[in-house]
Amino acid sequence: MPVRVATAFAPATVGNVGVGFDILGHAFGVIGDRVRAERSEAPGVRIRAITGVTEPLPLEPARNTAGQAVLSLLAQSPVPFGIELTIEKGIPLGSGLGGSAASAVAAAVAANALLDAPLRAEELLPHAIAGEAVASGARHADNVAPALLGGLVLTVGIDHPRVRQIPVPPAIRCVLLHPHMFLSTRDARGVLNRLVELSDVVWQTAHLAGFLAGCYANDLALLREAFEDVLIEPQRAKLIPGFPAAKRAARGAGALGCSISGAGPSVFAWCEEGTAAAVRDAMLGAFQGEGLACDHWIAPIGGDGARIVECR
Amino acid sequence: MPVRVATAFAPATVGNVGVGFDILGHAFGVIGDRVRAERSEAPGVRIRAITGVTEPLPLEPARNTAGQAVLSLLAQSPVPFGIELTIEKGIPLGSGLGGSAASAVAAAVAANALLDAPLRAEELLPHAIAGEAVASGARHADNVAPALLGGLVLTVGIDHPRVRQIPVPPAIRCVLLHPHMFLSTRDARGVLNRLVELSDVVWQTAHLAGFLAGCYANDLALLREAFEDVLIEPQRAKLIPGFPAAKRAARGAGALGCSISGAGPSVFAWCEEGTAAAVRDAMLGAFQGEGLACDHWIAPIGGDGARIVECR
To answer: What DSSP character marks residue A19?
Structure first.
């Protein structure tokens, strides 16, 4: 029996993870976007509705991350029917939690389920990347890959990306805060210097390498030492009032590390399970000091990637 | 019985390993330096002789990497006797094979054996770093740490360096060539731009991360993809005639990667055991095309670090 309707969920993601600008990201499955794909008589791709947003998003498929992901998929795997998409945003817009990537991934996964010969998950990656690029203006995989595959994911390359899941020490939790403020990805990108000091690069690479070795070897002391972005975070910290204080508070409460999620304004900390609540409270207090309320969550690092939640 | 004479061997090392400028290095145990330390009546540190060199090296202990390493050790662990050092250089001077580091490490290990309460190997690291700094003008651990500990070693930090051994796929061999030409470390450092493009940094970090993930996961395809220094090597390649051709030849013969060892002029390639001889011959041919003869070796990656070879 051919599938007529499929709904997929794709999780939020923490991009960069501090030390891995544009190359690392991890899933954060407590929140996410859902996309429903349904066969239609009319050919082509159509977006029927978008719910869960306070501001309008483009309904034209080629200008919508979910729509473009499906257009890209169908260009490779043509179908003799149309597809109608219904998008349910669970991730706040402009939060730095990978909402564009989650919609693109969920759409690709849902539409894929309608195909007579569905692609494997990894084969959907280029289509999700093409979808996400509609929002970010460039092709990046650091949110798309973990939203699709789950876990902590390293991406090497863009045109033919190789993605690898990195093991994460099981005792670690992620505290995630979304302060109620607006910060455009464009501004967060625009503040970055095009040239960086080689000496800073040596520190950043040492930290990235130590972070990865700490993950592979389950070495929390090394993780704690290495979990520090000396390259990007210092340039963006001033865009998020309360972040420097929240980071100090997180470290003071025992966090292994604390940084900005993607381009912000959301911020995250990794910590041992027993300290997670204290770290969250300390960070919330710092943002309250700036008059900023926050959504907040605690969850294991990584977890499942996108999945079909309805199929008939 | 107190030890009166100890001789230590410390291996040559490949610094940077392409993707890990100033933070990665691996031992190469086929060649190395030996340092003999002997108790003497006269207090202080004295260098009795240096053999195996074509040009004179400083005999004044504070200006000699081996001497300074022992001075640093004795400042922490004073002894009621003097120490005489005899240095046997097995690593060509100015080759980019970590000769300064090997002498500093071998001296620290040999002198340590004379102590009533010898330090652990890791505790010798700061003293070996202090010794090596006499030659390089700055404190680096990317040669010292693998010469001391063996294996492929990551160093995070300098003042309180954390070192970690990274597993290497057992099937891999290192082809090492030392072309007979002079290249000063100072010139090789001087050619580097102080500022680098952020876009290059993203590529370099992706490659470093892929390289490490490839090592941990024994993923040769990922190693091959990631084994490319886009940051430092392009700036130094022109200092070593024949290197660009040797690199192309190595890749063509199946090498996983090929780059400059430390500051050069030695160059190295990682390859699977079965292709090592072909890779070596291809690289030798490229240097011959520039009229450069080479010393050459093939050995497993890493291997043992410094060790006592005589003790009485």
So the answer is: T
The one-digit pLDDT tens for each residue of chain A (312 residues) are: 789 999 999 999 999 999 999 999 999 999 999 999 999 999 999 999 999 987 888 889 999 999 999 999 999 999 999 999 999 999 998 899 999 999 999 999 999 999 999 999 999 999 999 999 998 777 788 999 999 999 999 999 878 889 999 999 999 999 999 999 988 777 888 899 999 999 999 999 999 999 999 999 999 999 999 999 999 999 999 999 999 999 999 999 999 999 999 999 999 999 999 999 999 999 999 999 999 999 999 999 988 999 999 999
Asked if B192's CB is within 8 angstroms of A23's CB, the reply is no
Site from B205, B208, B220, B236 to mutate, A interface, most A CB atoms within 10 angstroms: B205
Q: Where are the beta strands (DSSP E) in B81-183?
A: 82-88, 152-156, 162-166, 172-179
Q: Which amino acid is at B55?
A: E
Instruction: Please classify residue A147 by burial: count the beta carbons closer than 10 Å to its beta carbon, then call 0-12 exposed, 13-18 middle and 19+ buried.
Output: buried
| A198·B209 Cβ contact <8 A | no
Beta bridge partners of B224: none
The answer to whether the beta carbons of residues B136 and B100 sit under 8 Å apart is yes
Q: Which two tokens stand for residue A219?
A: 């070495």
Chain B contacts of A162, Cβ < 8 Å? 210, 222, 225
- Give the closest of A210, A216, A231 to B216, CB-based: A216
Sign of the C-alpha dihedral, residues B118, B123, B125, B127?
negative
ipTM rounded to 2 decimals: 0.94
The residues, ordered by sequence, that sit 6+ positions from B70 with a Cβ below 8 Å of its Cβ are B37, B45, B61, B83, B85, B107, B108, B111, B127, B131
DSSP assignment, residue B208?
A: H
The amino acid occupying position A189 is: R
Best mutation target among A205, A229, A231 (most B Cβ atoms within 10 Å) is A205
Q: Can you name the residues that pair with B166 across neighbouring β-strands?
A: B152
User: Please, what are the domains in chain B?
Assistant: 5-166+302-311 (3.30.230.10), 172-300 (3.30.70.890)
Smallest CA-to-CA distance from B84 within B138, B152, B7 is with: B7
By CA distance, what is B194's nearest residue in A? A198
Two tokens, residue A309: 């939640």
Asked if B205 and A21 come within 8 Å (Cβ–Cβ), the reply is yes
| Strand positions, DSSP E, chain A | 5-15, 24-40, 45-51, 82-88, 152-156, 162-166, 172-179, 195-197, 257-260, 267-272, 294-300, 307-311
